[in-house]
Design a protein that fits this description.
This protein is α/β, with parallel strands linked by helices. 40% of the residues lie in helices and 16% in strands. Helix 8 runs parallel beside helix 11 and helix 9 packs across helix 11.
């Protein structure tokens, strides 16, 4: 199977698997027990995650079971700790946001929160002028994904952070899709809350994280005891945490490979698809992730194409059923012809060459079928 549907999950790296298996087989006992205090090298694991993300050591890190949990922690935390105290009941987000953000905001709307959904431009990017016009004195939070894992578009987070600072608004960014793909100037950007998932970093599915800027810590939704005896959001899964740390370390080592070699594979795929079947490549006018290609083919239904690709051992995507579906993001006649090909650092040239041949063959077949009809 050639797996080019890596916008939701990727293959765990060997170091993460080894770390998790070692824990499950040999060190499964509680890290809170006095006799286990020195069993795990948790301090080094934390250091690795801070170094990888570029977060400041004064910021608070909370290990979570997923990006969804981390996002819920931020949005519900801001609601309970900030909005209910200040009366600033407005939140701004993007209309094309991921399900975890949109569904949580729907729940908050039931509590009287007013959510402003910005319409991204044709390149999938938030218009800064529209953002400024939407801001009012009752806005407490802007919540966005730094990059879209399905389309590859990258938001102007630095400019949005400056806007938030000017208006005294909290800023939450989910960095799940962009971490490990490009170098991020986190030390230069004023982000109050940053969330991410571990599985897009080749870590275990049961891992994620939340960084909270110093002075903006939020109350945990689930009260438990962490490995140092303090309160945290839920019980501490040592094995998954150590595996996440290992995955972060590996992702840092492969950063250049992702931003250069994988980007070249993506460009090779796009170039051949354009030459052979006139593919339309979306979101090229804006900075985008090096491993994502959002493509459309005239006279081809994306669902029919994906089915045929799957029968030949190639997996791609057009998004989820309701949220983050390309037909809801792409504008124009090609909305139902769009497909997303998402590579990982394990994707090889041989796989891309083989995938290109399979895609071209099936696109030509479907275009002929569509023409005959």
């Amino acid at each position: 199977m050639i797996y080019l549907d890596q916008h939701t999950s990727v293959l765990p790296c060997s170091s993460a698997i080894d770390r998790l298996q070692t824990f499950l087989h040999k060190k499964w006992y509680s890290s809170n027990s006095p006799y286990c205090k020195n069993t795990y090298d948790l301090e080094n694991a934390y250091q690795t995650i801070y170094d990888f993300t570029g977060a400041k050591y004064e910021d608070t890190f909370v290990f979570t079971s997923s990006a969804s949990e981390a996002i819920n922690q931020v949005l519900f935390g801001v609601y309970h700790d900030v909005i209910k105290k200040t009366g600033k009941t407005h939140i701004i987000t993007s209309k094309n946001e991921q399900a975890a953000i949109l569904l949580t905001l729907k729940k908050l709307e039931e509590q009287g929160i007013i959510v402003h959904y910005l319409e991204p431009n044709q390149d999938g990017v938030i218009n800064l002028g529209e953002l400024e016009r939407t801001i009012n004195p009752r806005v407490s939070l802007i919540t966005l994904s730094w990059a879209d894992a399905l389309t590859g578009t990258i938001q102007p987070v630095e400019s949005i952070a400056q806007t938030c600072e000017k208006h005294g608004i909290l800023f939450h960014v989910d960095a799940s899709a962009i971490l490990g793909k490009v170098y991020l100037p986190l030390n230069d950007i004023d982000i109050h809350y940053m969330t991410f998932c571990g599985n897009l970093l080749h870590g275990p599915v049961s891992s994620g994280g939340l960084f909270m800027k110093k002075g903006h810590e939020l109350s945990p939704l689930i009260i438990g005891e962490n490995e140092q005896g303090g309160l945290r959001a839920g019980p501490f899964d040592v094995g998954s945490f150590l595996a996440l740390s290992a995955a972060c370390q590996q992702s840092l080592l492969y950063m250049d490979h992702m931003s250069l070699d994988v980007a070249r594979l993506r460009s090779s795929l796009e170039r051949k698809l354009q030459q052979e079947v006139g593919a339309k490549i979306f979101f090229q006018n804006n900075p985008r992730l090096p491993n994502v290609s959002c493509v459309a083919f005239e006279k081809v239904n994306s669902e029919a194409l994906l089915y045929r690709l799957y029968t030949e051992g190639l997996v791609a995507s057009f998004g989820g059923d309701r949220w983050q579906h390309l037909s809801n993001i792409i504008k124009g006649d090609l909305a139902n012809s769009a497909v997303s090909f998402v590579l990982s650092r394990y994707t090889t040239k041989e796989e891309i060459d083989q995938a290109t041949d399979i895609i071209i063959k099936n696109v030509k077949f479907l275009q002929t079928l569509s023409f005959d009809l």
